[in-house]
Design brief:
By secondary structure, this protein is an all-beta fold. The protein has no helices and eleven strands. Helices cover 0% and strands 48% of the residues. Strands 2, 4, 5, 6, 9, 10 and 11 form a seven-stranded mixed β-sheet that branches.
């Protein structure tokens, strides 16, 4: 079992920054991949960023590449999402997820079905 708790969401003006955190407990954190997804009102959940078990490999879609960065601190059992140059279209509930099947190598899972544990989400609102 893995428990995930997100924090760091809030209201920010366009162009601003936020850093989301996701604290994990349960299974050994350093042995699985982590990802961030988001869901805006009326839209499907979409992939935002992911990182492999060691932190040596990451992935992000073009919509956030260059603005968002994912990182992890395995000593603190925490994954982060640094979000810069925020836009109103980044407004969504942000979820972190754990992909416990991905425990070695450089592969970074990016699909929802590859993740088996999810947090409750944290709201990010970007005003124009």
């Amino acid at each position: 079992q893995v428990q995930l708790v997100e924090s760091g969401g809030g209201l920010v003006q366009a162009g601003g920054s936020l850093r989301l955190s996701c604290a994990a407990s349960g299974r050994t954190f350093s042995r699985y991949a982590m990802g961030w997804f988001r869901q805006a009102p009326g839209k499907e959940r979409e992939f935002v960023a992911a990182i492999n078990w060691s932190g040596g490999s990451t992935s992000a879609p073009d919509s956030v590449k260059g603005r968002f960065a994912i990182s992890r601190d395995n000593a603190k059992n925490t994954v982060y999402l640094q979000m810069n140059s925020l836009k109103p279209e980044d407004t969504a509930v942000y979820y972190c997820a754990a992909g416990t099947s991905y425990t070695s190598g450089y592969y970074v899972p990016i699909a929802e079905y590859e993740y088996d544990y999810w947090g409750q989400g944290t709201q990010v609102t970007v005003s124009s």
